[in-house]
Amino acid sequence: ICRKRRKTGGRMAPLRKKRKFELGRPAANTKIGAQRIHTVRTRGGNKKYRALRLDHGNFAWGSEAQARKTRIIDVVYNASSNELVRTKTLVKNAIITIDA
Asked: pTM for the complete prediction?
């Protein structure tokens, strides 16, 4: 996509079509539930793992110097959006309750 403009004010034509390496993928929107993980083929034939549903996770408790695998119960708060709390979507920095 070419956002530049000519001296006359007209839009510049795009230099080329979209390429495979420029693609962006849809968000996983991980929910709470029985574990469901899909593999995604990435550049160089490598794999990434998309967690569509999770019920367990490895959580650290800094003040107690503890880290262990526990069950995820609920999403309590999310600074970015209340919709993520309502739909119980697991994202980075979401405040959740765990079974510990």
From this structure: 0.77
Within 13 Å, how many C-alpha atoms sit on residue 10's CB side? 4
Which of 49, 50, 52, 57 has the alpha carbon at shortest distance from 74? 57
Looking at the predicted structure, is the pLDDT value of residue 15 above 90? no
**What is the token pair recorded at 83?**
């919709």
Partner residues linked to 8 by β-bridges: none
- Residue 25's Cβ-count burial label (10 Å; 0-12, 13-18, 19+) is exposed
DSSP-assigned states of every residue in 18-77 = --GGG-------EEESS-EEEEEE-GGG-EEEEEEEESEEEEEEGGGTEEEEEEEEEEEE
